[in-house]
Amino acid sequence: MDRKNPSAPSCAQVSPARRLVAAGIIRRTPGRTTIVRVTEAGVTGTIRKAVTR
What we know:
Helix content: under 10%
Strand order of the largest sheet: 1-2-3
Order of helices and strands: EEE
Strand content: over 45%
Distance between the termini: 48 Å
Structural class: mainly beta
Number of strands: 3
C-alpha cells in the first residue's frame, strides 16, 4: 500500500524506487500552444502564441 496515498488503487501502487518524477501535456490549437507540467513541487503552465512552421 502507498502510505502517502492510501486511497490509490492497488494497480497504482509503486515501489519507492520507481516514482513518477513529472507528468505533463502539450496542446497545440490554431493560434495557441498550452503547456502544463506537474511535479512533486507543484504545477506550472504556459500559454503561448502558436509559431507558424
